[in-house]
Amino acid sequence: MPEGDTVWLTAHRMHRALAGHTLTHADLRVPRFATADLAGRTLLDVTARGKHLLARIEGGLTLHSHLRMEGSWRVFAAGRRWTGGPDHQIRAVLGNDGHTAVGYRLPVLELIRTAEEPDRVGHLGPDLLGPDWDAAEAVRRVCADPARPLGEALLDQRNLAGIGNVYKCELAFLARATPWLPVGELPAGVPERLIATAHRLLEANKLRFERRTAPENRPDRKLYVYGRKDRPCFRCGTPVSRWQETDQERLSYWCPGCQQGPGPTG
């Protein structure tokens, strides 16, 4: 599942391969933009904003995409076979003489005016990996609704941009709180430490696709609870629990032994 660090790394790799070069071919395989002709324009910049990816193109255009659950952008050197999935899953191709970026299974893909970017990302809170990161503002937004469950508050991109389901579960574990504990019931100082930890973890993981939240000196331990259903908690030994939201793919993992607060049913 792409989260803020994955999107940042994707943008970083695309920027390194494409920025400053003329597009020799461009193909947007969505009906609304299929006739757009971008070849011959210079790709100026590729930037991540939370979980959104913005590829800015000469002429005041931005290719806006969002990966959501299954989407990905892959970068291939010229002449390399594309290996991100079958051809029918390709939604976009941007290439120059040296590299090609291929977007697979992109649920959101649109060509907009660069001036319209605020309409797409202006609602986002402080970006954990952005130059505008403001920890105090992120804490204020997360704590603005004391009755809201911690997991919901962390996932709300209007509070802070970049946290997905994996980090939600891992951060709740580190706070010793279940994802359903109301934010207002966290002990004093915990929200501030939690937001600082979120920033530290995303920064540490942004240059690698293999995400890690546990200490580096334990190669056998990458994540504390996410994906570890029925396996013993590293902290107390209690089997990790999992719960899936009704009609959604989103899962919650937590340790009933050392995370305090209500479960998914209240």
Could you tell me the mean pLDDT?
95
Global structural class: alpha+beta
Biggest sheet: strands, sense, closure?
5 strands, antiparallel
Ranges with pLDDT <50 over ≥5 residues?
none
Total count of domains: 2
Please give the CATH architecture of the largest domain: Orthogonal Bundle
What is the gyration radius calculated from CA atoms?
A: 20 Å
The general outline is: elongated
Number of strands: 11
Main β-sheet, spatial strand arrangement: 1-3-4-5-9
So how many helices? 6
What is the CATH class of the largest domain?
Answer: Mainly Alpha
| SSE pattern, N- to C-terminal | HEEEEEEEEEHHHHHEE
* Termini Cα gap: 27 Å
CATH topology of the largest domain: Helicase, Ruva Protein, domain 3
Assign a percent range to the helix content.
10-25%
Approximately how much beta-strand content do the residues carry?
15-25%
Question: Any overview of this molecule?
Answer:
Belongs to the FPG family. InterPro entries: DNA_glyclase_Znf_dom_DNA_BS, FPG_cat, FPG_N, H2TH_FPG, Nei2_N, Ribosomal_uS13-like_H2TH, Znf_DNA_glyclase/AP_lyase. Its EC number is 4.2.99.18. With 266 residues, this protein is an alpha+beta fold. The chain folds into two domains: 4-121, N-terminal domain of MutM-like DNA repair proteins, CATH 3.20.190; 135-254, Helicase, Ruva Protein, domain 3 (Orthogonal Bundle). The protein has helices spanning 4-18, 117-121, 135-142, 150-155, 165-174, 190-205; strands spanning 21-22, 25-28, 42-49, 52-57, 61-66, 72-77, 90-95, 99-104, 108-113, 241-244, 251-254. Strand 10 (241-244) and strand 11 (251-254) form a beta hairpin. The two termini are 27 Å apart.
